[in-house]
Structure to design on (276 residues):
């Protein structure tokens, strides 16, 4: 429940987003009426991510121990043990992972931003300003990481292990590398629809925008996933936290990409994983 409520805080933070201002950024389309944002509509919009979060947390809780993953910090809180010793070994790897992830996002964004029109840049900058700091930190740093790593990446590791490495006692490094890359690409592609809506210009620019987001999002999530799988869930979270101190919008795509790790993505070690 600790993981779920941590992620749910990120979902609730979307209530702080000015959806009316966000919808105003979407170019008008003939025959399409922009809905009026009401409090009821904002609350209803939280249902889908809440269901997905619950599924991801359940998958992670069931499969993470089987593949050698854990969430030391969350486990310490759940068992009322000192949390400091669980977090301390992950501080340095987490900071370095965040620095590398932030640098890759900034470099990718700078390279592709030159190919975007002034209109696109202005629109994406405005969108970045609409996302409040709590949402960037809580949703990007915790909720998305629970969805994409604690849930999805863990599932991919387990599937790769059971399908391709049945004789192995535990998944090999190859399973983790593949799971990190695939979940990172899915994360990037999942943002493409909104990029297409916000940037409906020439096809060439759209393709450049999509590639920009896919590359930057992949580097963002890959740095966190690698940190999380090698050093512990909280390493990933810290990696994300450092990323959060960097760019507010991902590589000119107009989508927030703060925090590249989940506070619940565990280390791969030879020792048996701790149970929940």
């Amino acid at each position: 429940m600790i993981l779920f409520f941590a992620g749910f805080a990120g979902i609730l933070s979307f209530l702080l987003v000015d959806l009316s201002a966000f919808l105003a950024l979407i170019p008008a389309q003939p025959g399409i009426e922009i809905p009026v944002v009401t409090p009821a509509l904002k609350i209803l919009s939280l249902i889908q991510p809440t269901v997905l979060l619950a599924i991801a947390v359940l998958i992670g809780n069931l499969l993470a121990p089987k593949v050698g993953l854990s969430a030391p910090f969350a486990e310490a809180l759940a068992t009322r043990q000192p949390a400091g010793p669980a977090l301390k070994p992950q501080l340095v790897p987490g900071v370095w992972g965040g620095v590398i992830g932030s640098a890759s996002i900034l470099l990718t964004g700078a390279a592709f931003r030159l190919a975007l029109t002034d209109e696109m840049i202005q629109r994406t900058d405005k969108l970045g300003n609409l996302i409040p700091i709590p949402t960037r930190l809580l949703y990007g740093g915790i909720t998305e990481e629970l969805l994409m790593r604690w849930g999805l990446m863990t599932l991919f590791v387990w599937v790769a292990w059971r399908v391709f490495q049945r004789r192995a006692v535990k998944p090999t490094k190859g399973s983790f590398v593949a799971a990190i890359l695939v979940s990172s690409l899915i994360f990037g592609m999942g943002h493409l629809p909104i990029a297409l809506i916000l940037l409906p210009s020439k096809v060439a620019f759209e393709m450049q925008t999509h590639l920009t987001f896919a590359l930057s999002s992949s580097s963002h999530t890959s740095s966190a996933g690698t940190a999380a799988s090698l050093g512990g869930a909280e390493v990933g979270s810290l990696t994300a936290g450092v990323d959060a101190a960097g760019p507010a919008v991902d590589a000119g795509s107009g989508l927030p990409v703060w925090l590249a790790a989940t506070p619940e993505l565990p280390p791969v070690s030879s020792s048996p994983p701790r149970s929940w």
Residues 202-210, 212-221, 244-276 have pLDDT under 50 and may be disordered. The two ends are 11 Å apart (CA to CA). Residues 133-164 form the longest helix (32 residues).
